[in-house]
Design a protein that fits this description.
The complex is a heterodimer of chains A (493) and B (77). Chain A has 493 residues and is of the alpha+beta class. Chain A is built from 14 helices and 23 strands. Chain A has three domains: 1-111, no CATH class; 114-314, Pnp Oxidase, Chain A, CATH 2.30.110; 328-462, UbiD C-terminal domain-like (3-Layer(aba) Sandwich). In chain A, the strands form five sheets. In chain A, strands 5, 6, 7, 8, 9, 10, 11, 14 and 17 form a nine-stranded antiparallel beta sheet that branches. The N and C termini of chain B lie far apart (43 Å). Chain B has one domain. Classes of the chains: A alpha+beta (493), B mainly beta (77). Chain A binds chain B through residues 43-46, 71-75, 139, 141-142, 146-148, 151-152, 154-156, 185-189, 193, 195-198, 203, 206-207, 210-211, 279-280, 282-285, 287, 295, 297-302, and chain B through 6, 15, 17-18, 20-23, 28-29, 31, 33, 37-42, 44-46, 48-49, 55-56, 59, 61, 63, 67-73, 76.
Chain lengths: 493, 77
């Protein structure tokens, strides 16, 4: 996608330079009416989840919510929904309120890459995250306002940590150092389990350390620069750095420093938990309400021991509500799931216009494509199933024409209503599938559904009333729509 | 008597993890952890999460039964 790179707008540069941390972003959101503080006394359960779900109902414009009055946690702060709406993402990228999801998609595409990282390294003693340092008597239950996210979760989860680990067989390789979001269940005041599987970069690191019987050290970053979270959840290449992607998307340097156990970490995060894998130990973990909106069951998984904790003064605990959609998880990873699929498809098929894989990490996706010849969209759909993400996630694919905005579901439904024939659907049976699809008959396998909702072209037969109205469309109409919004709501940003 | 709300392990398997106090230093709630099934709970939670009889049967855990092991360490031997 590098050929599409364009210069960032002045506003985007200004915002990127201003936002160096979660705190900066919360302040910026607040100024723009996108961050509120919940000051009523809040019980850890069920109040936090209730407020989070209510705030998350508006996927377009919902605010981040800061809790500062949690019963039993005086003085502690929790924030949810930082990435909970597309408007919050728009503000991060220097756009005004009212920016459409399609505009955000194309902007992220144009910023995509890791070839020009912007990373500043600062001395650990100058890093805000090291304002306080603990080396013994760890108590995560005391340091963080922990709570049960969903009512049948097996414990208290840290759901939005960005975990840094190094390849134990190539520890000096910056690119192979991984930053990922893995669910963490606190198992004791100074111990936690972390769920990763062999397919994850982190899973590879765990297996290598246990096979070679060497220590695996990790740094768990909490309360991070908002761009970091977006890329920690993005499957980039094994030897590509998530730090590089995040900084390149922002177009402004990220400040890194070294953790006490040798990882590169963000200097301005709220807290770093340094930990070490307890080789060979597996503990009960789960259930946990996962992104398809279902609980993933109880398993025995790797366990880690805390070795040190650094944190800023009055650290803010950033967490996520995840469960039956729509949730912050969908907004956090949706566009970053769509962008790589688009990049991979357009290499072979430049006719692909946009990919909307926002729904539950791509379990349902909509692809708009300009048909080159009859049936072409079906071939593109097959190619999408063969992309790295498609292999496990793309379950339901809806193909629409290039005159349909795949991010506008009213338009997608129009295409389904007017351009789909029942025999224009394909079921590909017994394909690989993520194990936590609640519709699966057998975990790990499932059927794929392709619905071709593109228009017909010869040699397809056409009905007699098939001529489509040419409605005014394009940038000029988009602009008028925005003017109408402004006339209705006034200047909002 | 404080048994595990999920697996009914007896009191001697239950660990007190942390006590939450208010600004005046008064006890607000206590967090417990079951060493048998790794369930963690707070005594101020709604009954559906912490009352064995009100929890759905589906979510019961039987620690003696085999559960899937992620990246089983035995595979390296």
């Amino acid at each position: 996608m590098s050929e599409q790179k364009k210069e960032l707008s002045d506003k985007a540069k200004e915002v990127a330079e201003r936002i160096g941390s979660l705190r900066d972003f919360l302040e910026f959101l607040e100024e723009n009416g996108q961050c509120i503080t919940w000051t009523d006394e809040t019980l850890p359960e069920p109040d936090i989840r209730n407020v989070a779900v209510a705030a998350g109902r508006d996927a377009m414009n919902g605010p981040a919510v800061i809790f500062n009055n949690i019963a039993g946690y005086p003085g502690k702060k929790l924030v949810l929904g930082v990435h909970g709406s597309f408007t919050n993402l728009a503000l991060l990228l220097g756009h005004p309120k009212g920016t459409t999801i399609k505009e955000l998609f194309y902007d992220i595409i144009s910023r995509w890459g890791a070839d020009k990282p912007l990373l500043d390294f600062i001395e650990p003693e100058k890093a805000p995250v090291n304002e306080n340092r603990l080396t013994d008597n760890f108590n995560l239950y005391d340091l963080l306002p922990l709570y049960r996210i969903n009512e049948y979760d097996g414990g208290f989860y840290i759901g939005k940590a960005n975990v840094v680990s190094r390849d134990p067989r190539d520890p000096d390789n910056f690119g192979k150092q991984n930053v990922g979001i893995y669910r963490i269940q606190v198992q004791a005041p100074g111990e936690f389990t972390l769920l990763s599987v062999p397919a994850h970069d982190m899973g590879r690191h765990i297996m290598a350390a246990e096979q070679d019987n060497v220590p695996l050290k990790i740094s768990v970053m909490l309360g991070n620069h908002p761009a970091m979270c977006m890329f920690a959840a993005t499957p980039v290449g094994y030897d590509e750095s998530e730090f590089a992607y995040a900084s390149q998307m922002m177009g402004s340097p990220l400040r890194l420093t070294k953790s006490g156990n040798g990882m590169d970490i963000l200097a301005d995060s709220e807290m770093i938990i340094e930990a070490e894998l307890m080789n060979g130990v597996r503990s009960f973990e789960g259930p946990f309400g996962e992104f398809p909106g279902s609980y993933s069951g109880v398993r025995k998984i790797p366990r880690f021991k805390v070795t040190a904790i650094s944190h800023r003064n009055d650290p803010i605990f950033e967490n996520i509500y995840i469960g039956k959609g729509w949730t912050e998880h969908d907004t956090l990873i949706g566009l970053n799931t769509s962008a790589p699929i688009y990049a991979q498809l357009t290499k072979d098929f430049p006719e692909v216009q946009a990919v909307n894989a926002l729904y539950q990490h791509g379990l349902t996706a909509i692809i708009s494509v300009k048909n080159r010849f009859a049936g072409f969209a079906k071939s593109v759909a097959m190619r999408a199933l063969g992309t790295p993400h498609g292999t496990m996630y793309l379950k339901n694919l809806i193909m629409v024409d290039d005159d349909v905005d795949p991010f506008d579901l009213n338009q997608v439904m129009w295409a389904l209503s007017t351009r789909t024939r029942a025999d224009d659907t394909i079921v590909v049976p017994n394909m690989p599938m993520i194990p936590i699809d609640p519709a699966a008959e057998v975990a790990g396998k499932g059927h794929r559904l392709i619905i071709d909702a593109t228009s017909f072209m010869p040699p397809d037969k056409l009905g007699s009333d098939s001529k489509i109205v040419t409605a005014p469309a394009g940038p000029e109409i988009d602009e008028i729509a925005k003017i109408i919004q402004l006339l209705q709501h006034g200047e909002q940003s | 008597m404080n048994s595990c709300p999920r697996c009914q392990a007896a009191e001697d398997k239950i660990r007190v993890e942390h006590k939450g106090l208010n600004a005046k230093g008064e006890l607000v709630w206590t967090i417990f952890h079951c060493e048998e099934c790794s369930f963690t709970w707070r005594d101020s939670e709604p009954a559906i999460s912490i009352d064995y009889n009100k929890r759905e049967d589906f979510f019961r855990v039987y620690p003696e039964k085999p559960y899937p092991v992620i990246m089983p360490p035995a595979q390296y031997k």
